[in-house]
Amino acid sequence: RSGQVRYAALEFGGFLGVGTDRYPLPWHMLKYDTEKDGYVVNLAKSQLESAPRYREDETPSYSDDYGRKVYDYYGFPWI
Fold this sequence. Notes:
By secondary structure, this protein is of the alpha+beta class. It is built from 2 helices and 5 strands, in the order ββββαβα. Helices cover 18% and strands 28% of the residues. The model has no long low-confidence stretch (mean pLDDT 89).
């Protein structure tokens, strides 16, 4: 427990917030865009097709094994 942010959750799909999937992303994937005044991520929709995800009514374990799975998928070393 380092107190370090490890994930951001990207919501995608669904309709009006119902049935959305959440995709945990390694925090290092996000870049702050001052023009958009928010975070952006360079990610193709096709990359999400097999990506780790969870439903809006679920809470993942966020264990080390889960973290490795997420980070490995996106090609980042587990921190």
